[in-house]
Amino acid sequence: MKSSLIYAVVLALSSTAIIAPSYASARTDDSRVPHIDGNTQFPPTRWGTFRHTFRLHVPQNSKAVTQLIIRVPDNVTVSNDVNNIDVVDENDHKINTNVSVNGKTILLAFPEPVAPNTKFDIDLNKIKRRNLGNGSIYSFSAKEVGIDAEIPIGVASFRLY
Question: Which residue from 18, 38, 98, 130 lies 20 to 30 Å from 113 (Cα-Cα)?
Answer without folding.
Answer: 38
